[in-house]
Amino acid sequence: MRKLIAWDMVSLDGYFEGPDHDLSWFVFDDELERYVTDTQQDAGTLLFGRVTYQMMAAYWPHAEGRIADFMNRVEKVVFSRTLENVDWHNSRIVRDDVPGEVARIKAQPGGDIFVFGSADFTATLMRHNLIDEYRIGINPVLLGRGVPLFKEGPERAKLTLLEARPLQSGVVILHYAPAGADTAA
């Protein structure tokens, strides 16, 4: 079974997006780029909610570099009841049965599955216990307000720390799995 990984950059106070969709506070440097390419190069599928998909689809098709090549090549699945169509290469829409479709994707052969951003969609995945690992890049900034990464979710969930990686920029990357999960993948 493929592993579903939620990967997000957050402020120290837990926001993944500042007011008015501001992402300018993300610390992104060569060291973080190496981490991203090393840990995501074998991913087989990306999952998105509508808002994050539209933001990514507006940026990546015109970008260049290793990450852009990956983003434009990999299979992308957007979960939305309102999006009319998708035109970013290798994308498709799923409108119904989120837990069932995600379980089907996880059961298919292929590389890891990643969710970027998509706080509402991630909350749905959390409610259905579909996330196998959380990878959080904590940025050395306090935003004070914005969109929290973790919206109202299930009851308390214990996690097991798999890795902690401080970067020279002050970003700290944490990998967690749900407590009791098989982490030998």
CATH architecture descriptor: 3-Layer(aba) Sandwich
CATH class: Alpha Beta
Note poorly predicted spans: none
- Please give the domain count: 1
The Cα radius of gyration reads 16 Å
SS elements, strand count = 10
Helix content: 25-40%
Taking the alpha carbons of the first and last residues, their distance comes to 9 Å
Q: What's the order of the H and E elements? A: EEHEHHEEHEHEEEE
The overall pLDDT, averaged over residues, is 92
Strand order of the largest sheet: 5-4-3-6-1-7-10-9
Tertiary shape? globular
Largest sheet: 8 strands, mixed
- State the fourth-level CATH superfamily: Dihydrofolate Reductase, subunit A
CATH topology: Dihydrofolate Reductase, subunit A
The secondary structure category is: alpha/beta
Report the sheet-strand fraction: 25-35%
Helical segment count: 5
Keywords, separated by commas or semicolons:
single chain; 185 residues; alpha/beta; Dihydrofolate Reductase, subunit A; 8-stranded mixed beta sheet; two-stranded antiparallel ribbon; 29% strand
